[in-house]
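User: Assemble these into one structure.

Assistant: Restating your components, then the assembled model:
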Amino acid sequence: MQTYQYDQTNICQPTLAPALATRELEVFYGDKQALFKGSLQFPKHRITALIGASGSGKSTFLRCLNRMNDRVATVKGRILYHDTDINQRQINVYQVRRQISMVFQRPNPFAKSIRENIAFALKQQGLHDRAQLAARVETSLKAAALWDEVKDELDQSALALSGGQQQRLCIARCLALAPDILLLDEPASALDPISTAKIEATLAALRHDYTIIIVTHNMQQASRIADYTAFFHLGHILEYSETEALFTRPQIKVTEDYISGNFG
Amino acid sequence: MDRMKQNLHQASKASYQDYFGKSISLFCASLVGMLVVAILYFVMTRGLATFTQNHISLRSFLLGQTWNPTQIGANGQPEVGALPMIVTSLAVTLLAALLATPFAVGVALFVTEIAPRRGGQLLQPMIELLVGIPSVVYGFIGLSALVPLMRHLFGGTGFGILTGTLVLFVMVLPTITSLASDSLRAVPLDYHSAALALGATRWQMLYKVVLRAALPGILTAVIFGMARAFGEALAVQMVIGNAVLMPKGWLTPTSTLTSQLTTGIGNTTLGTLPNNVLWSLALILLVMSLFFNSLVRFIGRRGRMQK
Amino acid sequence: MKKGKIFSALIAVTITGGLLASCGSSNAKNASSAKASPTKITAVGSTALQPLVEQAAKDYQNKHSNVTINVQGGGSGTGLSQIQSGAVTIGNSDIFAAQQTGITASKLVDHRVAVVGMTPVVNRDVTVKNLTMAQLKAIFTGKVTNWKQVGGKDEKINVVNRAQGSGTRATFEAAVLKGAKALKAQEQDSNGTVQKIVSSTPGTISYLAFSYVNKNIKALSIDNVKPTATNVTTNKWQIWSYEHMYTKGQPNAATQKFLNYIDSKQVQNGLVQKLGYISVHDMQVTKNAAGTVKQQ
Amino acid sequence: MSRKTTDRLATGTIYAFVGVVVAILCGLIGYILITGIPDISWHFLTSAATAFTAGGGIRDQLFNSLYLLLLTLVISFPFALGCGIYLSEYAPQNWVTGLLRMAIEVLSSLPSVVVGLFGYLIFVIRFNLGFSILAGALALTFFNLPILTRSIEEALQDVPNLQREAGVSLGLSNWRTITKIVLPIALPGILTGIIISAGRVFGEAAALIYTSGQSAPTVDYGNWNFLSADSFLNPMRPAETLAVHIWKVNTEGITPDAVAISAGASAVLIVIILIFNVGARFLGQRLYQHLTASKSK
């Protein structure tokens, strides 16, 4: 096994206006540090992929971005959104999550009807107009490319859908709230290739309106859909650049070994 | 832009909701805690009065074997030896739990794993029915059916630890069964499939994977069952003979802490020694269940670590 | 939308219900004390006396609607300690207040409302029909352990005693044991349980109030005196006691009226005897707390 | 011994255990029903109890039992729910929480007569509630809380964490996520807890003898004003429940038909618990389907 140098990194600063940025983000689970000084800028209306082996800290990093780690870990450092450090106690975390929405690795629709899955959060925010709700359900299901498949069974339980459909429903559920940023944690890892392709197509269509940050195991997937890619290794972000550059001209040895499959 | 910044800093409806939810649930929890503290304090002050006001030595209370609170013994102190009751209470509780656990786990496995349809829909509600039968009914059925049976089978009077254990066995069965099946149901289905995929037989899967995973839950079920057995009075009182004597065998009349407590409490005057010692019995009960509780928790933690 | 509301409504109802019930308690109390028109009498204590007082109270309230009488059990000890602390209006007891430790009898006023006779009872398989007082004492002190020692068949004697401090036991020990220490044996609190145990366990002896003797068990004669009400009134049958209703100091007018009612001919010759007690009016002797019997 | 044999043996053992339990169950319930059902009649259910003559019924006791159960649940359920939610969702993992859990478990092992006496000295005497349904319900709350809290906590914990994350990640408050998403899924489990605790409340006697009392004054079933002394709804009146009645009839009863009354009342009790059990399950399923839109297809 080769020993790698972790102090050597290649992090680019995208010139595009950032939608979100982290400054020296560190995460601790008890005494164990899971993430070291992660500083990244995510350009607006672009897809950024976070790649790396299991346990490299990429999911941990992603979950910090909308404060999903609040209860399980200690998160230090700054997360800048609209010139505000949202990693502070006094920040309204619910507001953060409304703007920065998350789709999880395993599809987790609510045990409610398809319609209710989407309308639920809207109603909680005070939208009760039936016509408006119906419109939002339709547009977000269309945006997630699910409308045609489910439009006749909106009152069926969401749990009866296939895994791929459930995952797209989860995406639609986020979209209905019109967030700014969409975080996806390996959304396709539990799905078959056809469902995966559909999800990728959905994401590609969404990139014009949303800033998307996606964690993935699958390097082909990253190279297919992402504009920017960051490589995580053992809690360190070693390389971050435009996807094409990262895959064709990696500057760091670890990255090169990882993407060429020579890892370890 | 500014609006967004403001929103991020301002509390929203959701913040208030959460504040509300957290406070109300904390309020409930602390109220429940306070209730527990109140009743514990109550039992403790009364139970300790035996030692602080009546100056009974703890030793003679815990190790003495004669129980006769209204009479003065040879040493000039009232005779309040609780040892026979402590021994009997421990014996019937442990025996009932030991006896009931395999049956309860067996039924729980049947209900959750082997025949969830038939078992879950018919057997479990039936067993839960047992909880609702008043203890006095258990007592009288025990008295009119079990005691003669025991007398017939083993001689003696038919009253004693064995009969008490059997009655308690039936009484704790539903508690242990339903809590154990709850914890078995909570074992993720993936575990089952993973074990079966590795070629395990159903029993290996159940024993090595499912039961192992549900162990802490099953142990809690047993604690709750023992707790019920500990606290049960009316039924045991009728079949155990209710004589404060050291148990000399399976079927000699003896008495548990609770049965003596229930018998005596209406016939004594508050604030006097015969009444205070009854509260001391309740205190022993508390301390004992606390001990069991910690013990089972400790075992549970060890079991989980080894997994 | 409707669906969502149902659950929150459910929670809201239960929570407000809970809060209302817990604070409502004080409201309800205020309301009832504000009305305050019916006088409230609470009688607590002896379970043996409860049926009599309860039935008498029911009949009494039918005629006097301005009184609410609440009769509860709890045991003689509870009755005496509660009347001593003033928490209740009347404390029912099977024993003299002076016999109970921790009770200052001088502060309480005794109202004797009935007499109850007790008899030794045995399982039907016991062939003995009569015992001498000395034999009975020997059995309950553990000196005699087999029925053949007192003229019966060869069978072990199974003694079932009554709970320490209970009125029945105090009466029995005063009349039979006369200060000797009782054998350690089974102790049961209630007449019903003793009745069941004696009827189902061969060789068993215990003692019960007259009214609990039924065809499944056998009452014994002592020194050839039969346990009958007539024998109690003359003290030929010595195991009997009063049923007491204690008040703290002199009772108030309403309570006194109720006590008078219980002492009336109507109740003493009707209800008291129907329930298996003996009327205090029929007694030709009196007994005091020390157990001394005097001709009236 | 081969794995197959062990498997067969173990399955056989489980079946044997189940067989024994079923035999006990049928024997017990059968015994109660067979001895009791012949004594149940319309007259038995609808007439008042008598003190010393035969032919008394259980009307008041039956109603009191149901009313007391309702009141107990109304008082204890919200607190148990709040406490269960706190323990499952909010409580930090520290010694205070551990202590609270342990205290609750210890509470459930208190003998009922101690709870009864505590209730008597505190509620009946100190708070001056008198012997009343309310005092009884408060005492029973002590009983109910541990098992109810525990089963609610357990039911909540069984809901996958993914559901909570889904709610929270949409910007919903934790509270909304718990009440609107987690709770409906946990409902069947919570209902089981309620059934079990309700059964216990129904069968409890020792704690009630000193709190709600053991006499049943005549009440007026037409009087709906719950503040009026003879209204059947008045929570401040003493009330003998079915279980207490069974206890009383068995221990001190002098009615000639005590055995029949006790058997009939026990059978009625069992039948009611059965109805309650089945009803609650059915209702739980319906409510669950309603809340989760998971109609069986």
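The interface with chain B takes residues 81-84, 86, 90-92, 94-96, 99, 126 of chain A (CB under 8 Å).
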